[in-house]
Amino acid sequence: MKFSYSCEGKGETLVFIHSYLWDKNMWEPQIKFLKEYYQCISIDLPGHGQSSVLDDRENISLRDLAKELTKFIDELEVEKYIYIGLSVGGMLAPYMYEYHKEKIKKIVIMDSYVGIEPEEKKKMYFSMLDTIDLIKKVPENMAEKIAEMFFSPIVSEKRTKLYKTLYANLVNISAEKIDTIVKIGRIIFGRENAIEILKNIDIQVVFITGEYDIPRPFEEAREMANYVKDSKLFLVENAGHISNLENYDRVNEIFKEIFEILHKYNIIKLNNEMKKYV
Question: Which residues are within 8 A (CB) of 252 and not within 5 positions of it... i.e. 6 or more apart?
Fold first, then answer.
């Protein structure tokens, strides 16, 4: 697999993995906020953004994808990092930890669930994927339905810029990417149960979920948090599944707290003051 990525800022490393049907650019509000204190690496998943598509014969699982991502991070010569994943990015987290236990310092799982997909939802998602696979595109009526699931009712009802951008991206997915998009969708919604892996994580795991997240309600985040020895749980008000974009101010405030940004700022300020007397 060939991954496209961006790298901004300097300092300790944060690795961002985006949601299904989005790309690395979805993290722009957070990277803009964090790059003064951290090196921010954001990676496109296969068939998303500028990353390569999967081979026709390439059948993978979330575990396989996590393994490939950890190999890529090794190639970037990252020694230690904090892992941040939203939706499928969060589903990859348990496997990322298994492969990179010695490298990952903290995990942030946003708007996600590492258990199995509820059967009713799974049937609906697989039916949609079958249609996309058959006609090799996302039809307009389905794009509307998908976009509505990603956002809070206010965004969906008002058809805001966020909604219109996602809708346009969905109906304009290139034919060459469709097969990979469908494959990734099937491994997401047909995933195995990784809940038990959470019990073995001995670093802090932070769970963040939008108040109006339709695919991944807050109760699922609460359930996952109960499996982790050192966990924190946050609700993002006035946000749906893509909470980092709908209420980026609140998410940035949470990041400020969990990454101790104020402490880092004071250290940088102190170091700059001391340089005056050297």
Answer: 29, 30, 33
Are the beta carbons of 234 and 250 closer than 8 angstroms?
no
> Which tens digit of pLDDT belongs to each residue from 30-69?
999 999 999 999 999 999 999 999 988 778 999 999 999 9
Average pLDDT taken over every residue of the chain: 93
The DSSP secondary-structure symbol of 52 reads P
Name which of 73, 72, 74, 84 is nearest 33 in CA terms: 84
**5-8 vs 38-43, strand pairing mode:** antiparallel
How does DSSP assign 47-115, residue by residue? TSTTSPPPPTT----HHHHHHHHHHHHHHTT--SEEEEEETHHHHTHHHHHHHSTTTEEEEEEES---S
pLDDT in tens, 133-170: 999 999 999 999 999 999 999 899 999 999 999 999 99
- Name the DSSP class of 106: E
Tokens, residue 145: 């339905």
C-alpha dihedral (194, 64, 25, 254), degrees to nearest 10: 30
Query: What is the full DSSP assignment across 109-129?
Result: EES---SPPPHHHHHHHHHHH
CA atoms within 13 A on the CB side of 38: 25
Q: Name the residue type at position 10.
A: K
Residue 266: Cβ within 10 Å count:
11
Q: What predicted TM-score, i.e. pTM, was given to this entire model?
A: 0.93
Residue from 38, 41, 43, 42 nearest 12 by CA: 38
- Amino acid 216: pLDDT: 98
Rounded to an integer, what distance in angstroms lies between the CA atom of residue 176 and that of residue 199? 40
Distance (Å, whole) CA 179 – CA 47: 9
Cβ pair 20, 87 in contact under 8 A: yes
